Amino acid sequence: MTSPEPALRHALTHERAHHDRCRSALAAMLDGAREEVVTGEDVSASGADAEVLGRRLRSRAKELRELPPGPLFFGRLDFTDTDDSGSRTGTGHAGQSYHVGRLRITEHPAAPPLVVDWRAPVSRAFYQASARDPQGVAVRRRFGWAPGSRGDSADLTGLEDEHLARGEERVSGIVAREIERPRVGPMRDIAATIQPEQDDLVRGDLGASVCVQGAPGTGKTAVGLHRAAYLLYTHPGRIRRGGLLVLGPNRTFLSYISEVLPALGETGVRQSTLAEEIARQPVTGTDSGPAAVLKHDERMAEVLRRALYARVRTGRADALAVPDGSYRWRVEPEETAAIVADVRAEEPPYAVGRERVRAR
Length: 360
Fold this sequence. Notes:
Number of helices: 14
Radius of gyration: 27 Å
Distance between the termini: 70 Å
Strand content: 5-15%
Order of helices and strands: HHEEEHEEHHHHEHHEHHHEEHH
Oligomer: single chain
Largest sheet: 5 strands, mixed
Shape: globular
Number of strands: 9
């Protein structure tokens, strides 16, 4: 029977060679980005178009240039050809293998990627697949790198395979060691160790407001930053048009987390404190002492609530006409009053209540 040691050495040799190939491809991507910046500056275009093109090219070059040194991938997914019943998996990735890392790396824009971005849809299986629900994954491989590695292929020291299609699943020693590694210096990203519950929060819909609560050290800030990176990846135009702001309690905290987003390939995200944001707004007036005391009295909240809900009136004498595309719905006064009463009984926030009334 063949000893597993030679097989492990062979696998490590193969993966180190792949990492060397990825490193060369990344260097070529950086050179190409620099060349595109120079070429883009020479393109004849209108002032606005040239400015947009130049900004986009310079941003891409900056992201690649400022990518911190480190391993270029931390996992691999091998998809099975068929499911347990012998039918095609239906994932669209049957028989394919993908290395998962913090940045997409390819030798040519049209070539298959050497590394897929951890935020790509196919990468979700790396975090969510299990023996109970393999999601088409035959083998999930995790890579162990020497602590503090700056991305030298020789620092790849181990790997773990989970044969999910066979029903094999185990607690990863690599993940456990990474999570338990002493936290020294700036905050590190957790792309390699995101847990399924954290992944759900990170990949939540853009329209969903996410509030992460937990005890100190449970990864709240890390999840928030990875969600920011995910939204920048999946909705780049919309997020950048509206802007993304990381708001922290003080500059010390912002300095502590400042390396996470660049490590995930996202640069240029503004970070600020609440005090700094308030200072950005000009003061247009001041209250007298008695007025300030009155406005800060906790009873003022109830006064404002009453004033707001006093605006809700249902005593219409005529029916309400509600437009709906090419139709107009007629809602009788009694029905309107009943809808409003039902919504008010639920005691939602005022704005939410307005939307619920409209929806009904």
